Amino acid sequence: MRKGRGSGWIWYLAILVTVFFWGMSFLWSDSVLDxxxxxxxxxxxxxxxxxxxLTLFSLLTGRLQKIRRGDWKWFxxxxxxxxxxxxxxxxxxxxxxxxxxxxSVIIATIPxxxxxxxxxxxxxxxxxxxxxxxxxxxxxxxxxxVLGGSLHTEYLYGIGxxxxxxxxxxxxxxxxxxLVDKQYNAFTIVTWQFILAMGYFLVPFLIWDAxxxxxxxxxxxxxxxxxxxxxxxxxxxxxxxxxxxxxxxxTRTVVFLPLVAIVSAVxxxxxxxxxILPLQMAGIVIAMAGVVMAQYTKTETGNEA
Length: 305
What we know:
By secondary structure, this protein is mostly helical. 75% of the residues lie in helices and 0% in strands.
């Protein structure tokens, strides 16, 4: 990883922007699925739009780097984890449970698994306070959701599917860190990620969804949330995320992910889809305290492995 460039406040602002877009993504995805759009039609359309936008931007700005022959396997593996495995878990989990808030709280457990991967494979240095902060942040989010009564036993199958997304995100972040250590910039990583993802999702789309495809799936009510997902969540947010992994490290980046659940729940409340109870505010405070603890360090974050 490039040294001495991870302490700037701009990267913490960048990950907060990413958190906001990903928090909104559950509501936008739920909007598409509620209109009866098949899962693979939805995901493949999102991949095509994201890949097109990212490729055009990266080429026009001259930021698309040449991939060295030996590194293609890492790009392929990264894409297999995310978007492929992650989006399968997230989208089918959302379809099964019908609960954007429940989906977001499962995703909030990602930092715990990433911490384990970071410690084992990358020896990322975290203090005891950092570790406690991660678990407090996750506990705060879980408390926020549980106090709202969003967890029910009938969702167990959906929760199991959602953990595929957790595995996908953890694997993706680990390989993404490896690629930034190889000096690939965020635009190159994310552009090729979505170009390859089109191929990953093309086959299931052709097998299961293409025979029943209808022009109704191109209506503005369907395309509007998909465009938001493709440009903001797949394009902007993934580029910012990869850049943050480079500049502030893998673990300190993913520790912000528990806040995705809070953004999703608050947005649902503002849009009249849910209500935030007074006790749930305690969960927000606890989660924010955990994030602060997880970020605290006496050394420059640029020295993080």
